[in-house]
Design goal:
With 136 residues, the protein is an alpha/beta fold. It has 2 domains: 28-62 and 97-136, no CATH class; 64-95, no CATH class. Helices cover 32% and strands 16% of the residues. The chain has 5 helices and 6 strands, in the order ββαβαβαβαβα. It has a 6-stranded mixed sheet with strand order 1-2-3-4-5-6. Strand 1 and strand 2 form a beta hairpin. It starts with a strand and ends in a 5-residue tail after the last helix.
């Protein structure tokens, strides 16, 4: 799902099987779709996890599933092992991961990256473009 806010696309994806199919009814590889997107969409995008930046999206403040799961287990430990009432547990968000930016995508979009942007991790290549040099 893509949510459009101003001039930035916020990409969200859920753990579902591919839904885009070719003329024969076969699922299209996610990275092939990504390669088409990178070549044809000229919008800045922000992804929920660093893996999407590795694939080619512009940036992410990594929100890993591992960190979310770990925080959930800690809360459940309070309930199951210590007898705490779940209603009394504070709402907690896991620590934010590194702000990652894909240099190749930034160049494609004409964005000049500077130190003032607070970027913590740079990804140099777009996996989708490497895997699918020619999009159909």
């Amino acid at each position: 799902m893509l949510l459009i806010q101003s001039e930035v696309l916020i990409a969200t994806q859920f753990a579902t099987p591919p839904t885009i199919k070719d003329a024969s009814g076969n699922p299209v590889d996610q990275l092939e779709i990504g390669a088409w997107y990178l070549r044809n969409i000229n919008k800045h995008e922000c992804a929920p996890e660093k893996v999407f930046v590795v694939e080619g999206m512009l940036c992410s403040a990594d929100d890993s599933g591992f960190k979310q799961g770990y925080a959930a287990v800690k809360s459940m430990h309070e309930v199951l092992e210590k007898g705490r009432d779940p209603a009394t547990l504070p709402c907690k968000a896991p620590e934010r991961g590194a702000l990652a930016v894909n240099r190749q995508r930034a160049q494609m979009l004409g964005i000049k990256l500077t130190e003032k942007m607070g970027i913590e991790e740079y990804i140099d290549k777009c996996l989708a473009l490497e895997k699918h040099t020619q999009s159909k």
